[in-house]
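Propose amino acids for all 109 sites.
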């Protein structure tokens, strides 16, 4: 009897990971116009000044994926998706800070 083994692979999305416009569009399944609107709205902040030069870091990829789901699944407009992403980032940062303080104080959750 042969047992099937599922192999999962992935890429660590950190500050050292960078992708271009086409790769980001593929990863997030978004049209070029939506990506341009995300940048214009300030939701994404690519490196590079011209669209042809744009590259996006791992955290920007994560943010774009969340925003694309908010736009598609919750039918938010771009401003709403940007606000939701900002709030989610703030919650993540606050949780990180609380965990750090708890660690420093020797508290456990």
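Proposal:
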């Amino acid at each position: 009897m042969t047992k099937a083994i599922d192999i999962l692979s992935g890429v660590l999305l950190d500050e050292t990971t960078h992708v271009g416009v086409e790769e980001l569009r593929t990863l997030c399944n978004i049209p070029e116009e939506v990506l341009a609107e995300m940048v214009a709205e300030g939701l994404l902040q690519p490196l590079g000044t011209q669209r042809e030069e744009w590259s996006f870091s791992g955290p920007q990829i994560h943010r774009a994926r969340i925003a694309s789901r908010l736009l598609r699944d919750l039918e938010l407009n771009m401003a709403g998706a940007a606000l939701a992403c900002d709030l989610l980032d703030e919650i993540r940062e606050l949780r990180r800070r609380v965990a750090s303080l708890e660690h420093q104080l020797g508290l456990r959750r």
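The chain has one domain: 18-105. Residues 78-105 form the longest helix (28 residues).
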